[in-house]
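User: Hey, quick favor. My workstation is busy. Could you predict this chain's structure for me?
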Amino acid sequence: MDFQVFLQHLANGISLGSLYALIAIGYTMVYGILRLINFAHGEIFMVAAYFAFYSITSFFMPWWVGFIVAIGLTGILGMSVEMIAYKPLRNSPRISVMISAIGASFFIQNLGIVIFGGRPKAFPIPNLFSNIIKIGKVHIALVTFVIPVVTIIFLLGLLYIIYKTKTGMAMRAVSKDYEASRMMGIKVNRIISVTFGLGSVLAAVGGILWGIKYPNLIPFMGLMPGLKCFIAAVVGGIGNIAGAVLGGFILGLSEIMIVAFFPSLTGYRDAFAFIILIVILLVRPAGLLGKKIGEKV
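Assistant: No problem, here it is.
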């Protein structure tokens, strides 16, 4: 493999890793506060892509307006899912909450088939993102460079909210101790809803960027990316935002590079994520940046 081909694969790996990281952050935020996995996160990612699709094709919004509307609606959807599927079970056993999360995932999937139809739809790619950048003999789509930049911008925005705002301070307090947070006057239910909303916004951005990069929409499109982003969060250390980003990049780069160097393994591409998960859990059960159970977070 010559250097220019390697450079093209590297760009694709960074782009895919950025998408995984963006979506994995949503998983790790919810786990950091509620200690539960939002298994409907992949479906929220899917619905965001459809929201953007219909905003542009059916309501004839400019693409940037359609994207903003889709992100806003997805944030509301995420908070609604939390209110309906998780809030009533706040004091129930963990297994009940997990079953509810899985049920919410299947419900949104099948509701998507009923509302959006099972036939694949082509995502409307704005002309700006369809441009090709030439670096020597390498041809790379502009969206490949846009995705990492957008990921960094939203990551910095999220870190600002968490560490520089009162809401972020409340989120960190709730992640430590529910009862102590309530005694301090923090509205725990509101903070949990905000966390779901922020996680869903990140999933929405990821879903829209995914639609631009892989313009084929189906109601089950969130299933495999959702699983891989969950794996990315676990690999990096579930509950750790930096870990989710690291896990996303490890997964994206590994997936692209292994297929690039060993083309005969292309059919096993999805299996690499699970192999990486098994290896990491055998070596570091808490994830690369995670902390052992019993340590203070």
